[in-house]
Amino acid sequence: MSGFQIEQSKSKSATFFDVKTLDEKWKNFSKCVIMPQNVDRFDSYKNFFIRPDDIFILGYPRSGTTRLQELIWIIANDFDFKTLMEYDCGTRIPFFESPELSFELREKPLVTSFEEMSSPRTIKSHLPVQFLPDEIWTKKPKLIHISRDPKDAIISLFYLLNDFSPVPIKLEDFLEDFLSDNVLYCPYREYVWNFLNLPDYENILYLTYEEMSADLDGTIQKVGKFLGKTVSEENASKIKDYLNFEKMKNRKTNDNKFAYKKMMQIMHPNLNNDVTFIRKGVIGGYRSDMPKEYADRIDYWYAESGNLNQGYNYKNYAAIKKIFGS
């Protein structure tokens, strides 16, 4: 880990670590806030062997990556609904940062490593651009990035992390940590802006949670076109039924409960919390939890993204503001 600078995060709500790459290429990029168990894995992240036909699903946590990864897997695997229903989403679409969640801790693993996966591999990651595998920038696999209103994403992340916490996390502390870039995978603004401003990378599709929710038909066809697949009316109808939010919430292959229970036994052996992986999925749902003062602060804070001096040059400010209806 000689190529990284590591120190404990200043987070008040949980124990995280800040990791910063010392690679000259990424010298203008900031830290990434990460879970303690992943601190020693950054060499393996950067040196991961990429296949040109890999498909990476990318986005800040709780931005809709779970629903999107299922949509992508179905189309990329030629509408194999049998395997879809037989194996849970976490083993079909492994989580890059914590592969044990997809392999060792699964009740019924499909494979036991990334290397065993058949092509095209669909892989989910929440890592910011500067920590993705180096070979991504030379082999140019398909990247699909999803964004969501940060207020909805952070409230959803608050509830998930609370499920894993041995002591209750205070919402106010968590929101203050988010605004000061001390929550998991932060800094958030740089995270999103750098993906939306990737230079010289044409093999990427941008989506939003709000777009996918409002026009699932259009999103299905857009993903199909990007993957070079024709989606028939019959298959589109099957996909829509499978992606019904309430059905996903109650489906064992989507809830990740088995793997998360195993993970909790490792992290906190005496903790027996029930983890709710798929929660509400409502656009604007943050309003029932987040004080207006914080909602206004986050809106103002996010609008200041154009003044950031880290990461790529921010050329698409107007387009990015439009995504969140600002």
From TrEMBL:
Domain of life: Eukaryota
Keyword Transferase: yes
One GO molecular-function entry: sulfotransferase activity
UniProt keyword list: Transferase
InterPro entries (alphabetical): P-loop_NTPase (IPR027417), Sulfotransferase_dom (IPR000863)
SUPFAM superfamilies associated with the record: P-loop containing nucleoside triphosphate hydrolases
Sulfotransferase domain mapped to chain residues: 52-304
Family according to the record: Belongs to the sulfotransferase 1 family.
UniProt protein name: Sulfotransferase domain-containing protein
